[in-house]
Specification:
383 residues; mainly beta; 22-stranded antiparallel sheet; two-stranded antiparallel sheet; 4 helices; 24 strands; 8% helix
């Protein structure tokens, strides 16, 4: 039986190598993506009016180019960006970073990958994998009217270096049958002065710094996925309201033309858990000229039970899409944290970019010093 199993495995691997490999013409591509938000005016309560610059996701301006080399079996990807060190993410600030600590270096990607078979891929380095991540994003104007969640609130992406940009990991991806993808991720640490700086012991790396996910694409229906996230410190993010050891599950419905519905839950466990349950649902789509982006993000803990409701209806006109972002942030344990914001924006898409401008107001209630008023102007490119 053992010999038969070994022979079957060898034949299976060899057949995948000989018959299943999709040929890729070797080459190098150059692409780019960037986004910057200029604030000619932002006034927080009774403070003096200010100017500012950042992005729509509370960070420094993002300008990057990506170099990727591809072949049938081996490739690499480097994402180079001008960037500033992220600052602390205060609840009441639409942008946050440290402009004095500015540099040029690798951003989301600095990796090598190998695909010995069509159904097997190994990524090593710094990278993002959005195969399983939530499928409904946040809005251009969400952080200017409230505390809107992003795709990770629905289902957390596999991302090396969440805690620190200089940490590196490895992702083994399998597609054993059509529609099914399995990913096993481990973060090993980082290199430092030609030595190795780990994040704990080897036992910690293999038991705590791991993320194991699986997803199945149901033809013409949607994507179902689940994952386990370890408790390692390196997997935590100050920008997300959920961290630590947890199980996640999500389902994205794509059966309706031009619409995506995505629902995700997170159930933490272990002695270090800081919340009891988190769940998010997102909807994005359009009917003729009418568009809608909607999100409900919840987090329940012993001392806080919060629910954020975001709606952004839109209407396509000849000169762009007009949007009305509305955000209601509810805290059922502490009504002083409940707040409300809204705005009016317009966005114009081009073949390789977009521009948008809005007038937004946030913290309309429970704010003794008055609301925060902003006029964000967003510029975006992709090549």
């Amino acid at each position: 039986m053992k010999k038969f199993t070994m022979l079957f495995t060898a034949v299976f691997l060899l057949s995948g190598f000989i018959f299943g490999q999709e040929k890729v013409t070797p080459g190098i591509t150059l692409t780019g993506y960037g986004k910057v938000v200029v604030l000619p005016l932002i006034k927080a309560g009774d403070e003096d009016a200010q100017t500012g610059i950042g992005t729509t996701w509370k960070d420094a301006p993002h300008t990057a180019v990506t170099i990727e080399g591809k072949s049938t079996n081996v490739g690499f990807k480097i994402d180079l960006a001008a960037r500033a060190k992220p600052g602390s993410p205060p609840n009441n600030a639409p942008i946050s970073y440290s402009p004095k600590e500015f540099s040029f270096g690798t951003n989301d990607f600095a990796e090598v990958y190998i695909t010995p078979f069509n159904w097997l891929r190994l990524d090593v380095g710094k990278f993002n994998s959005d195969v399983f991540r939530g499928k409904v994003a946040d809005s251009y104007w969400g952080n200017f009217v409230g505390k809107t969640g992003n795709e990770d609130y629905i289902f957390t992406r596999i991302k090396s270096g969440i805690l620190d940009d200089d940490y590196y990991g490895s992702l083994l991806s399998l597609t054993p049958v059509e529609g099914l993808t399995i990913g096993g991720y481990i973060n090993f640490g980082r290199t430092d002065n030609y030595g190795i700086t780990g994040f704990g012991t080897a036992a910690d790396a293999y038991s705590e710094n791991i993320q194991i996910a699986a997803g199945y694409q149901i033809k013409d229906i949607g994507l179902v996925r689940a994952q386990y996230v370890g408790k390692g410190e390196i997997l935590k993010s100050a920008w997300l309201p959920f961290n630590g050891q947890r199980i996640e599950a999500a389902f994205a419905l794509t059966a309706v033309k031009d619409w995506t519905f995505d629902l995700g839950i997170k159930i933490p466990f272990g002695d270090e858990k800081t919340y009891d349950f988190a769940g998010s649902v997102g909807v994005n789509g359009r009917i003729n000229k009418i568009a809608l982006l909607a999100r409900i993000d919840s987090r329940f803990a012993e001392d806080s039970k919060s629910l954020d409701v975001f709606l952004e209806p839109g209407y396509n006109l000849s000169f762009g899409t007009v949007n009305l972002p509305i955000d209601l942030d509810l805290d059922f344990e502490n009504s002083d944290n409940t707040n409300f914001g809204l705005g009016l924006g317009i966005k114009k898409r081009f073949s390789n970019g977009a521009v948008g401008v809005a007038f937004t107001v946030r913290e309309l209630i429970n704010n003794d010093s008055g609301p925060t008023i902003a006029i964000p102007v967003a510029l975006e490119y992709w090549f």
